[in-house]
């Protein structure tokens, strides 16, 4: 704990862990415990990462004090000149990074970005075609527990049972039969890239908008290892905190023709004041994502996932689509005599943290989860490569067999790759010159 305290650099506004400890020892204890948890195990949640110190500094800055409803140059509050500059920088960097005509960097989360995209393009009661939830659709793709399922009429497409791949003929047939106002491509667990050109063609054929929910792969797009949905989709929704390694938040990219509708859908329709500390942190993350170091990281994320997929197959896991092209692996564990929740529990007991995963399970009760989902972004940020992935894959296999020796091996491996090493932060490129 003292190590963490002394390694925190002091900011002009005097951020310092001791101040928090003195003011609120209870919360400081929770915070430090969480820092230790994150560094003491293997973080394989596909949506998580370790942001840089530069991004953390922007997030914990007095920009959090500023109210800024509206957009740069058109705010409802005074004193916005400098946060306007921060937002303009974030927008320009996002546009350049993804080759988009327009970017809105205000959505508070990926879900808020999707909500705003729907608000811009749809009316309540409209039909939307999206990936069915048991096949990997997100809550915002029509879950009855979410606004999307209540306000729109969702039709779900799925994956082919034998290959695990999206069945584009089914997508086309459903689009022709239901004439949706919008088609959504994007998933929380599909380990391959959507064929954006095929989706565009189907959308054109049926007169639908195409919304790409690229929350997961947008960081791979930034790093040049995934196809860019921007040229194909009318609106691209994304998160900034997954593979992209920025602050927790959302992002919308679109053509100039939809810019005004998207802006109004974010504010004032679905949100109030922008969180300017987060917007500033997004700007920092976009700049980091434009560096050669980030491209190297993104390539490593994908090759690590490939290696891990091979080892896990050898450990008896049945991988959706037989492997991965992304950072993400979805695996059926029923062949090992387990269900997703039991598998996640055994892995957690060994210090290996990942998610359960919905995979099509006909004949099983609703809520039954037969898979696990994992991703390699966080471990790659920590500096792990293929050699470590072989070790991680074997540790996962052993933990699923409840091999008691795994916990200490996990701790040893994690200890070699601290997420916040004392030396230069590789995420900002500070060590490269
Ligand atoms: C993560 C994710 C979201 C939502 O992001 P939040 O920031 O958690 O709201 C939306 N869609 C997809 C496909 C996602 O993977």
TrEMBL record:
Task: Please write the reaction equations for the catalytic activity of this protein.
Answer: (6R)-5,10-methylene-5,6,7,8-tetrahydrofolate + glycine + H2O = (6S)-5,6,7,8-tetrahydrofolate + L-serine
* Highest taxon of the lineage: Bacteria
Co-factor requirement = pyridoxal 5'-phosphate
- Per the UniProt entry, the Enzyme Commission number(s) are 2.1.2.1
Q: Which SUPFAM superfamilies match?
A: PLP-dependent transferases (SSF53383)
Residue(s) at site: Plays an important role in substrate specificity: 241
Cell compartments where the protein resides: Cytoplasm
Asked if the Swiss-Prot or TrEMBL record annotates the protein with the keyword Cytoplasm, the reply is yes
Which UniProt keywords are listed?
A: Amino-acid biosynthesis, Cytoplasm, Methyltransferase, One-carbon metabolism, Pyridoxal phosphate, Transferase
Q: Which InterPro entries match?
A: PyrdxlP-dep_Trfase, PyrdxlP-dep_Trfase_major, PyrdxlP-dep_Trfase_small, Ser_HO-MeTrfase, Ser_HO-MeTrfase-like, SHMT-like_dom
N6-(pyridoxal phosphate)lysine is found on: 242
Classification via HAMAP family: SHMT
Alphabetized NCBIfam families for the sequence: PRK00011.1
Q: What is this protein called?
A: Serine hydroxymethyltransferase
Q: Which organism is it from?
A: Streptomyces zagrosensis
